[in-house]
Amino acid sequence: MTSPTAPTRDQEPRLVVSRTLDAAPEAVFSLLTDPAQHHRLEPTDWVGEALDPQQGPITAEGQVFGIRMFHVNAGGEYHMHNRVIAYVPQRTLAWEPGQYDDSGELGTGGWTWRYDLEPAEGGTRVQITYDWSEVPDAMREQFGIPPFGPDYLERSLASLAEALGEDA
């Protein structure tokens, strides 16, 4: 069961959707913390393979993992490097996508992805949040932020369920 929350003018700009999955929090968290599996969490071909499939799991805040991305509006394939900004084992994983500049600094656009897990009867309640509250207005307009609605997050949770072996 999903419960979307669409942004309004009075709310902080974010989309939040939740679903209860038939998997233990440990199984869900293990999948989320494996960058080589992130393409399985996404309902389109936007997210591709990990840039370093041998990187291993995410284990702490501050880690950066790279993902191949594809979007026609971005000119095709590009790379995103995601800095982990929240990590609580079996409970929370969040990151801010960005790209490295010529000096080697990781710059981010102001949007974040966050997964919160809570044990539930027979499984795990997973809440996904896409937050663009720190995206500058000019960038919001240039890139059409947010580029999707709550249905995209609902489909992302269905992809997560399918990756865990459930019927979506």
Short structural description:
With 168 residues, this protein is an alpha+beta fold.
How would you portray this structure in words?
With 168 residues, the chain is of the alpha+beta class. It is built from 3 helices and 8 strands. Strands 1, 2, 3, 4, 5, 6, 7 and 8 form an 8-stranded antiparallel beta sheet that branches. It is globular and about 45 Å long. The N and C termini lie close together (11 Å). It holds the Pfam family Polyketide_cyc2. InterPro entries: Polyketide_cyclase/dehydratase (IPR019587), START-like_dom_sf (IPR023393). This is ATPase.
Q: What's the structural blueprint in terms of helices and strands?
A:
Blueprint: E1 14-21, H1 25-32, E2 47-50, E3 64-71, E4 76-88, E5 92-100, E6 106-108, E7 112-120, E8 123-131, H2 137-143, H3 150-163
End-to-end Cα distance: 11 Å
- Identify low-pLDDT runs: 1-10
Q: Helicity, in percent?
A: 10-25%
How many structural domains are formed by the residues?
A: 1
Instruction: Assess the beta-strand content as a share of residues.
Output: 35-45%
- The secondary structure category is alpha+beta
Q: What CATH architecture would you give?
A: 2-Layer Sandwich
Q: What is the number of helices?
A: 3
Report the biggest beta sheet as strand number plus sense, adding barrel if it closes. Answer: 8 strands, antiparallel
Computed CA radius of gyration, to the nearest angstrom: 16 Å
Q: Tell me the name of the CATH class.
A: Alpha Beta
Shape: globular
Count of strand segments: 8
CATH superfamily: START domain
Average pLDDT for all residues: 90
CATH topology: Alpha-D-Glucose-1,6-Bisphosphate, Chain A, domain 4
Protein name: ATPase
Organism: Brachybacterium phenoliresistens
